From TrEMBL:
This is UDP-N-acetylmuramoylalanine--D-glutamate ligase. It is found in: Cytoplasm. Cell wall formation. Catalyzes the addition of glutamate to the nucleotide precursor UDP-N-acetylmuramoyl-L-alanine (UMA). It holds the Pfam family Mur_ligase_C. ATP binds at G109, T110, N111, G112, K113, T114, T115. Keywords: ATP-binding, Cell cycle, Cell division, Cell shape, Cell wall biogenesis/degradation, Cytoplasm, Ligase, Nucleotide-binding, Peptidoglycan synthesis. The lineage of its organism: Bacteria, Pseudomonadati, Bacteroidota, Cytophagia, Cytophagales. HAMAP family: MurD. Belongs to the MurCDEF family. It comes from the Bacteria. Pathway: Cell wall biogenesis; peptidoglycan biosynthesis. One of its GO terms (cellular component) is cytoplasm. The gene is murD. Residues 308-421 form the Mur ligase C-terminal domain. It catalyses: UDP-N-acetyl-alpha-D-muramoyl-L-alanine + D-glutamate + ATP = UDP-N-acetyl-alpha-D-muramoyl-L-alanyl-D-glutamate + ADP + phosphate + H(+).
Length: 450
């Protein structure tokens, strides 16, 4: 019986352990941190040996192969030790891919992965296909492969997961964009980070499809210097030669691989230019698996994005409230302000991450009628915008922020929480901040209605 060691006992690690056991491996799970009760129970019930709080190197290095959590860097001593001993180290996605019967539709990029993954999955599910949602969103791919019975797996992949994938092949791979992120894991070189993202196309043949954003400078730079496998399918908003998917008014026009189609996207609930890219990519994938434009259009009308991403959370006296708490950097806020067409009351602030707000000034001047700062230290925001937008208030209380914003707004306006900052000054995380905002809106709705 071949021995396999699983490093990390979260969703992906436990999924890999259960699949490995089902495939006849002798499994050992090791987590240097503490294991959540849910996963501890799953391992115990399956009678899979595990440890937490330490790595027993003797046990781990006795394995023929190691499956590691994406959060563990290559520089970790346990990984360095394994590689010195020529023990293969792979990701859970790589391991699960060996046993999957269906085809993979994989999505990566610095921003927009989750929305595009959820939308692609929604298109396939709505069309009645046997499809699983896995990877960074939803459950582990290994767990879904263990369940079986799927023809398609829609998988969100981070660069960390792609780093340890070697034989895995996506039938459809989507690369949305590449902007600086996680550079500490890539020796502070954008080229290394880009190469990790492009691993989504590895092992493709001409019968597989690589969908990429033609407008992204880093993607184009990499493609100019490297041969990328698979049939190349470009999408973009800027007119260019060889564009397979483009936006024409309210319709996505597709012309590639014997597909000639127009998909009306007027019913889409998604706001902003970034979501036009996300939608084009998801529509391209749906067309490639044979879903008719009418089915895609119907599914768009019923799509609900993940929470905290330009999420409508209520309307009070004609003022709409939108929760964009996931917008923790300036770039994400730019997309929000650019995408909202009505006058805006902007709730911003939190723990500053070295933000340069200057790129937002033209949009604030053009669209924002008032600003509410929700944070402990708002000095940088005040300095950036007080001259452009004189209506500026500050608070450390989310209920007061909603009240202030409502008072600044009038019917037809939009109040958006799009913080440009981390949440740790007043909240546990961006989800906590978003939930608190939605609850404050609901409380104000009740007050106004009573």
């Amino acid at each position: 019986m071949q021995k396999i060691a699983i490093l990390g006992a979260g969703e992906s690690g436990v999924g890999a352990a259960l699949l490995a056991q089902a495939k006849g491996y002798d499994v050992f799970v090791s987590d240097r941190g503490s294991i959540a009760e849910k996963y501890r129970q799953q391992l115990s019930q399956a009678q899979i040996p595990f440890e937490e709080g330490t790595h027993s190197l003797g046990q781990i290095f006795a394995a023929a192969e190691i499956v590691k959590s994406p959060g563990i860097p290559e520089t970790a001593p346990v990984i360095a030790g394994a590689l010195e001993r020529n023990i293969p180290v792979i990701s859970e996605i790589e391991f699960a891919g060996r046993y999957a019967q269906g085809r993979f539709i994989c999505i990566t990029g610095t921003n927009g992965k989750t929305t595009t993954t959820l939308l692609t999955y929604h298109f396939l599910k709505s069309a009645g296909l046997k499809v699983a949602l896995a990877g960074n969103v939803g459950e582990s791919l290994a767990g879904k492969v263990l369940e079986g019975g799927y023809d398609y797996y829609v998988v969100e992949l981070s660069s960390f997961q792609l780093d340890n994938m070697y034989a895995f092949k996506a039938h459809i791979g989507i690369l949305l964009n590449i902007t600086p992120d996680h550079l500490d894991r890539y020796g502070y070189h954008m080229d290394n980070y880009a190469a990790a993202k492009f691993r989504i196309a590895q092992n493709m043949t001409a019968a597989d499809f690589f969908l990429y954003n033609q407008d992204d400078a880093q993607i184009q730079k990499y493609r100019a210097a490297h041969q990328v496998p698979g049939t190349q399918v470009a999408f973009g908003l800027k007119e260019a030669e060889g564009l397979a998917l483009r936006l024409e008014g309210n319709a996505i026009s597709a012309s590639f691989s014997q597909i000639e189609a127009k998909v009306d996207v007027a019913k889409s609930p998604l706001i902003g230019q970034h979501n036009q890219y996300n939608t084009m990519a998801a529509v391209g994938a749906a067309l490639l698996v044979g879903i008719a434009p009418a089915q895609i259009e119907a599914a768009l009308g019923t799509f609900r994005n993940a929470d905290h991403r330009l999420q409508p959370v209520g309307e009070i006296e004609g003022v709409r409230f939108i929760n964009d708490s996931k917008a923790t950097n300036v770039e994400a806020v730019w997309y929000a302000l650019d995408g909202i067409q009505q006058p805006i009351v902007w709730i911003v602030g939190g723990t500053d991450k070295g933000n340069d707000y200057s790129t937002l000034s033209p949009l604030v001047r053009q669209k924002v009628k008032a600003i509410v700062c929700l944070g402990v230290d708002n000095s940088k925001i005040r300095a950036a915008f007080s001259q452009i937008c004189p209506k500026l208030a500050e608070t450390q209380d989310v209920n007061e922020a909603v009240d202030l914003a409502k008072n600044f707004a009038q019917a037809g306006d939009v109040v958006v929480l799009s913080p440009a900052c981390a949440s740790f000054d007043l909240f546990k995380n961006y989800e906590h901040r978003g939930r608190a905002f939605a609850e404050a809106v609901a409380a104000l709705q009740r007050t106004v209605a009573s």
